[in-house]
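Let's practice the habit of predicting before peeking. Look at the sequence and jot down your guess about where helices and strands might fall. Then scroll down.
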Amino acid sequence: MTDDAYLALLTGPGATLGVPPAAVGELAFMDTPAVRAWLDAQGVTPTSPELRLLPPEQTAALPEDAERLPVPLGDEELSRLRHETAPQDVARLEQELLAYRDCADGREALLARAVAAGVPPYRIAELTGEDLAAVEAVAG
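Done guessing? Here is the structure:
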């Protein structure tokens, strides 16, 4: 397996690998001279149906004769790509995990605000599903 994502031209059975780049949204590398030159050399546009973007974990499945170009992806771009290439049930779970992360980021601050406002620790634990000992530790 490689650490690089790849743009590839795929037809036939390999055409199900990856996703069209447009499915991932804005991608910084698409406007680079190297990518534009590669697309021109292949005679395709960024919206060509045979153009696919593959995450690093799928590149081993690329047919040997497929035209390909390694491309740099930022963390957010790679996350969006992996979300788009995940099976639908996994993609839904990933959305839930992201929502949980967003909620959990301010967890201790929210618990501390509730304690400071006078909400009893047992009630905070009841409302949040947090362990009472964890709430009491924040209430400290």
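How did you do? The chain has two domains: 5-86, 106-139.
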